[in-house]
Please model this.
Amino acid sequence: MARIYTTFAEFWPFYLREHSKPRTRALHYIGTSLVVALAVVALVTANWWLLVALPIAGYFFAWIAHFGVEKNRPATFTYPAWSLKADFKMWWLWLTGRLGPELERAGVGRI
Model:
């Protein structure tokens, strides 16, 4: 039986372990970066149709990562809000060079 997470703090290490391969994380970074870029362009240009592309851009790369690289089921299916929050947290920690210790604490190791 799968463990049920009741707090984001409990979920976070699980999320990192589900993204243990560097290629999985890299594909997530591409998707999340594209989501942020599309959101900024939509805001700057007031082209609100670009917002429709946000979930497509984000999930496309993430699902390629999970089904093709990591060979696991995306946590989004069970924990959609926490997965979204964790994806942005992982992306931000990677951008700021602070993801390594988080991966180690979760038992994943350095990038």
In short: Residues 22-105 form one domain.
